[in-house]
């Protein structure tokens, strides 16, 4: 895959790219659950800075039971217009004359001149890009939405840290893999520093 980032809204306070374009040399639909044989290519459009916020809840006190996950896509009014613009930009790229020799029919025909049609298609088919964050977000202890502090320790717990994308209070512009590795490395540094500063254990401690 080849990735590209675009910033569509230059008046936004985010000051960051808000659309990711992913060019793939494959025909992918519904996360490849629906197979298409033959040659083809695609362009996936991702909203990198969504303002919508989902939720993860416990289904019961039974830890073996699956969680209740509701991503609440498009629950914020700013998300749909930005993604529609991103799709319109992607259609302009795909309809460029340079791609004419390889361009075939679209799996879901939509037109850049029909934003309402694009919105209908997005509400029908938009799905995850596998980069959720923020379920254990970082913040001060007096913030009811915060789970961990800057040292990755869980508020109100002893000996428990979280070191993955769930601690991010806001999602990054691009994919979350590299930032997650950085969080893990930072946690390792914190653990090493804590081990160096702790008092040595004497043999009498085990008596």
From TrEMBL:
One GO MF term: flavin adenine dinucleotide binding
One family name in Pfam for this protein: GMC_oxred_C
Positions of the Glucose-methanol-choline oxidoreductase C-terminal domain: 50-184
InterPro entries on file: FAD/NAD-bd_sf, GMC_OxRdtase, GMC_OxRtase_C
Gene3D superfamilies: FAD/NAD(P)-binding domain, Glucose Oxidase, domain 3
Domain of life the protein comes from: Bacteria
Family: Belongs to the GMC oxidoreductase family.
Protein name per the record: GMC oxidoreductase
Species whose genome carries this gene: Paenacidovorax caeni
